[in-house]
Amino acid sequence: MSGDPLARVRSRAGEIGLQRMPWVQVFAVFFVSHEVGDYLLQTEWQATNKRGGLSGPSVRRRALLSHISTYTLAFVPAFIWLAGSLHWGVVGVAALIAIPHMVQDDGRLLTAYARVIKKADLSANSQLLSTLDQAFHFLALFLTALLVGK
Length: 150
Fold this sequence. Notes:
- By secondary structure, the chain is mostly helical.
- Helices cover 73% and strands 0% of the residues.
- The chain has helices at residues 7-15, 23-40, 44-49, 58-73, 76-86, 89-106, 108-116, 126-148.
- Helix 5 packs antiparallel against helix 6.
- The radius of gyration is 19 Å and the shape is globular.
């Protein structure tokens, strides 16, 4: 008998795929899922109407929520892959992906960040908001991958 009482549990967990994935693999899968959800699946209508969707007119809310729905669906293969190691924790991972994405795509916090922290005029630099949007998406996915992975 081994001196480590958890050795048998760890061995059995490994046999049925319960070890956590390396964070870099998790991030790579999240990155691909993000690109699919934010570029391949997002419609022009969603992209042009989602800003201000958390508190704006209903058309903006519908655009934002429909984008978040399709965006999160793009992660389903990642969630299935992770379910082998996280089981029901994958629901929390889905929330960690969808909620920050929704807040960022609403745009108000990013606009405030550009104005207050970067001292930038978004009307003079139309690409800045898009660049900030992607940078914060990648940061959120990176932090989630670090949390989820080993």
